[in-house]
Design goal:
Elements lengths: L6 H7 L5 E6 L2 H4 L12 H4 L2 H4 L2 H6 L1 H16 L5 H11 L3 E6 L5 H5 L4 E3 L2 E8 L5 E3 L18 E5 L8 H13 L2 E5 L8 H10 L3 E6 L11 E4 L2 H14 L2
Parallel strand pairs: 1-2, 1-7, 2-3, 7-8, 8-9
Antiparallel strand pairs: 4-5, 4-6
The protein binds 2'-O-acetyl adenosine-5-diphosphoribose (OAD).
The site of 2'-O-acetyl adenosine-5-diphosphoribose (OAD) has 25 residues, from α2.
Length: 248
């Protein structure tokens, strides 16, 4: 399907209240200094997912997995929201019905001020006990190499979704419902290859939503999109918000 790259036309659609859903991926945080997973410089170029982001890897070598997460937590702790995160806060403020679905575990959307937010892959700032399953917020960076549960002494793990694991059921239902009721869905900075996140956009499209993608480059989703904008999310999204504001 041919798509448009007319930002004004997309802004025009939002002049009447719409149910807006945004799906974001690692590209949104790239300009905050956090590496993406795929593409040049992507984390999966240097690490194999099966060594670091699976329950089997954690069972086999918890020290290695934690070492990677300690490193990522330190990196993310220094990162600040960028203009893409802030533009999505502004979009939420002007949208009566808005849901932000993110695959990112870095917490930068919440830090920027997004509220109607579903972190479908969990949060790197939460830990979960592998024995009693208690989930707690843990922001300290000086954790021991293998952190233990303060209540039961069980081994803690990052409360993120790894390959081969199911998404949290409540979040999955909420995200699917939002996607299927969307009238406009913006897909920002994701390679759209990890399920079920990538399918949310297709479900929205099938249910009649207008689909708009913001990415450095085309993805498998691009051919399903009504609009596709190629460039940095930190430039495209503020420009989109400026188009919206200029139409008021
Ligand atoms: P990827 O690393 O797969 O894709 C990042 C996307 O962002 C690519 O399509 C880039 O072209 C695009 N991109 C990079 N910088 C950008 C920028 N400044 N502006 C706009 N676009 C930009 O990341 P995700 O799609 O988020 O899952 O990956 C999905 C999941 O795979 C992650 O949540 C993670 C990973 O394995 C788990 O860990 C379960």
């Amino acid at each position: 399907m041919p798509h448009s790259s007319d930002l004004q036309a997309l802004a025009g659609l939002l002049q009447i209240p719409q149910r807006v859903v945004v799906l974001t991926g690692a590209g949104v945080s790239h300009e905050s200094g956090i590496p993406t997973f795929r593409g040049s410089g992507g984390l999966w170029r240097h690490y194999r997912p099966e060594d670091l982001a699976t329950p089997q890897a954690f069972a086999r070598e918890p020290e290695l997995v934690w070492e990677w997460y300690h490193w990522r937590r330190t990196l993310i702790a220094q990162a600040r929201p960028n203009p893409a995160h802030h533009a999505l806060v502004a979009l939420e403020a002007r949208s009566p019905d808005f849901t932000l679905l993110t695959q990112n575990v870095d917490g930068l959307h919440a830090l920027a001020g997004s509220r109607r937010l579903i972190e479908i892959h969990g949060s790197i700032w939460e830990v979960r006990c592998t024995v009693c399953q208690a989930v707690t917020v843990e922001r300290r960076l000086d954790l021991p190499p293998l952190p233990r549960c303060p209540s039961c002494g069980g081994l803690l793990r990052p409360n993120v979704v790894w390959f081969g694991e199911a998404l949290d059921a409540e979040r999955l239902v909420a995200a699917s419902e939002a996607a299927q009721h969307a009238q406009v869905m913006l897909v920002v900075g994701t390679s759209a290859v990890v399920q079920p996140a990538a399918s949310f956009a297709l479900w929205a499209k099938r249910a009649g939503a207008c689909l708009a993608e913001f990415n450095l480059e085309p993805t498998p989703l691009t051919r399903h999109c009504d609009f596709a904008f190629h460039g940095q999310a930190g430039e495209l999204l503020p420009a989109f918000l400026a188009s919206l504001a200029s139409r008021l």
